[in-house]
Design a protein that fits this description.
single chain; mainly alpha
Length: 539
């Protein structure tokens, strides 16, 4: 018995690390200041006791040596197992269902690409798919670390340039002491150089701040100066040889121009290669990977992938010398299923990425979401797929839906394409065949397990007749009166999921609907929503 008790007693290092982790908590500022001063062995002990968000944060900001030396895989494996146990206790009904997560009707709490996480839960909390998700997490962290290094190198380059200028100034002053018989013009030139150096230092320091971690800074003047300096250096040699004729000058000028063009082409190739490498490095579909390890993805990862809100407010349409990182340029699809949502987060996404085509915001954590988020989504000009399942009841009132439709810009509305010749015909469709109708670009809509009512849904379907796939599963308040919106002959609907809508009858809903849309397909698996959807273009 005494041996068993001795084994249960924690060691002194364990107690100290636990107490230290409690003092730190989730204060990232304390972590960034204290941890670099500690030895790696002590950091490893404290990291095991920290919450997942804090451990993820230090995984991003740690040094290159610690990134390679610390056994991050072992630490995140424990967090992976803890998160599986937590979700299994909270969602026993979802986990115990028969079948795989690719075919079952239960809703996953995370995006479809993370379904194997639930497979591990069903297999008695196994770690078969842990390696795959840890590799995706590592790719995400590498991408974050690269952006931080790019921002930090801009300051290092500025400081190196300033140091070079200072060294040149010191050398010039020493030459002045040796040569006292020089003209006064040289002194005035040196004073001007001193003033210019001070101005450059002020400008360079004001252009960068540590909070700009999501942005890359580019100075257009520096590019011009670098190109002109290369050309002038190459043009110095022909100026000395004036006696040899104009042919030599022309040859040298042509060679300098061609060399400058070659340098520009090389720079363009390097930039394109970097952007393609970064795009291939991380798949946006795995943006919610930190959730598998217990992290709050909406606060931890998005703060690195999206610039800070204060920076966004100070920038008018990304003007000036600020450029987006390459991965933000191609953001047309965003999946935040299961994340904790708020009005400020959704507004921030819609402002920074107005060209999103696919947006999945299905989540139970919508306590801080109101009608303002719905109005912000209306500003997305190219939105084709929208999933706002599990949102609260008061958001989908008729007044809010009318305001949502009113906020959609008229510029994004286009005339409906005529139906395919192979499409089934009905009398109502033939009557409205020659009508020209303008509609928003929305094609796929999921209102799963929301408490939307008939009048709000009818108005939505009347104003968005381009919809192809509508998911209404679990909408308990819908009755046969919603037939007025779905039986609109202008509606291009092809697929409908009304599973769980127990007030919809066969005679009062299904048969009248089939008389108007004979080719409609009824499906009952929520995972098949927008199964044929593909992002058409990348910006």
């Amino acid at each position: 018995m005494e041996e068993g008790k001795n084994e249960e007693i924690p060691t002194l290092t364990k107690i100290c690390s636990c107490e230290f982790a409690k003092l730190i908590g989730e204060n990232n500022i304390v972590i960034s200041k204290i941890f670099p001063t500690l030895p790696t062995q002590i950091i490893m002990l404290i990291l095991q006791e920290l919450p997942p968000d804090s451990m993820f944060f230090y995984y991003v900001i740690c040094s290159d040596i610690q990134f390679d030396v610390i056994p991050w895989k072992i630490f995140f494996k424990t967090k992976y197992i803890e998160e599986m146990k937590k979700i299994k206790e909270q969602n026993i009904e979802l986990v115990d269902q028969i079948g795989s997560w690719h075919t079952k009707h239960a809703l996953p709490l995370l995006p479809i690409k993370l379904n194997d996480f639930y497979v591990d839960i069903e297999n008695d909390i196994s770690t078969n798919n842990f390696h795959k998700y840890f590799l995706e997490l590592k790719k995400m962290v590498k991408l974050m670390r690269e952006t931080r290094k790019l921002n930090s190198t801009s300051t290092v380059i500025v400081n190196n340039n300033n140091n070079n200028n200072n060294n040149n100034m010191i050398k010039e002053e020493e030459d002045d002491d040796d040569n006292k018989n020089n003209n006064n013009n040289s002194k005035t030139k040196k004073n001007n150089n001193n003033d210019d150096g001070k101005k450059n230092r002020r400008n360079n320091n004001s252009n960068f701040s540590q909070s700009n971690r999501g942005l890359l800074l580019v100075n257009k003047n520096d590019k011009k100066n670098s190109n002109t300096s290369k050309i002038t250096k190459k043009n110095k040699s022909p100026m000395k040889k004036k006696k040899k004729g104009n042919n030599i000058k022309k040859k040298n000028l042509n060679s300098s121009v061609s060399s400058s063009l070659n340098n520009k082409n090389k720079m363009k190739k390097k930039k394109s290669n970097k952007s393609t490498m970064i795009k291939q490095l991380f798949d946006p579909g795995f943006l919610m990977v930190p959730s598998c390890f217990g992290c709050d993805s909406s606060n931890v990862s998005l703060d690195f992938f999206f610039p800070h809100q204060n920076i966004l407010n100070s920038i008018n349409s990304w003007g000036g010398n600020l450029q987006r990182p390459p991965y933000l340029n191609s953001l047309c699809e965003l999946n935040l299923r299961g994340a904790t949502l708020s009005d400020s987060l959704i507004k921030r996404i819609c402002k920074q990425h107005p060209l999103i085509e696919s947006l999945d915001l299905m989540s139970k954590e919508t306590q801080n979401v109101s009608k303002k988020s719905l109005f912000a989504i209306a500003t997305l000009v190219k939105l084709k797929k929208l999933n706002i399942g599990l949102w609260k009841e008061n958001i989908f009132q008729l007044e809010n839906v009318k305001m949502f439709i009113a906020l959609i810009s008229e510029e994004c509305k286009r005339a409906l394409d005529p139906r395919k010749k192979s499409a089934a015909k009905s009398t109502m469709r033939e009557i409205r065949e020659d009508m020209v109708i303008y509609a928003p670009p929305l094609l796929y809509l999921s209102l799963e397990q929301t408490l939307i009512k008939d009048n709000a849904l009818n108005y939505f379907l009347r104003e968005c007749p381009r919809l192809i796939d509508v998911n209404l599963s679990g909408c308990l308040y819908l009755t046969n009166k919603c037939l007025f919106g779905l039986s609109n002959p202008d509606l291009r609907i092809e697929r409908l999921n009304h599973c769980g809508c127990y007030k919809l009858s066969n005679e009062g809903f299904s048969r009248p609907l089939l008389s108007v849309h004979p080719d409609i397909i009824f499906y009952n698996n929520s995972n098949l929503f927008a199964a044929n959807y593909e992002v058409s273009s990348t910006s």
